[in-house]
Amino acid sequence: MYYYWRSTSTYSIAIHTTARTLTLYRNGQWFKSYPVAVGKSATPTPKGTFKIVNKSINPGGPFGVRWMGLSKPHIGIHGTNNPSSIGKFISNGCIRMHNKDVIELYNLVPIGTTVKIV
């Protein structure tokens, strides 16, 4: 007989743009928070509720080591090749994370995870 492990945890993400934090919830409870960079005033991070619709390893360029695309076209949660940008209003609307943090998040959350940006 074969057994397999399957996560029964449900994850959701909340991004607070003014605080520049991404909070991960597991089964509705706080799990972990990360510092992020968000959109500058000319290209702000959009507010609303979205879903992760695609994921990519090593997308290259300014996207660092991971990409998680949102249901809002051209917006995603990704790593960065400029770690000094974290904590700032600097992106073109995307949510940037330290590469080590985005790897951890990428490995936890599946496609379909809800992302609420406020």
TrEMBL record:
GO cellular component, one term: extracellular region
Pathway annotation: Cell wall biogenesis; peptidoglycan biosynthesis
GO MF term set: glycosyltransferase activity; peptidoglycan L,D-transpeptidase activity
A Pfam family the protein falls into: YkuD
Keywords noted in UniProt: Cell shape, Cell wall biogenesis/degradation, Glycosyltransferase, Hydrolase, Lipoprotein, Peptidoglycan synthesis, Transferase
Active site, renumbered: 78 (proton donor/acceptor), 94 (nucleophile)
One Gene Ontology biological process: cell wall organization
Domain (L,D-TPase catalytic) ranges: 11-118
Family: Belongs to the YkuD family.
Protein name: Lipoprotein-anchoring transpeptidase ErfK/SrfK
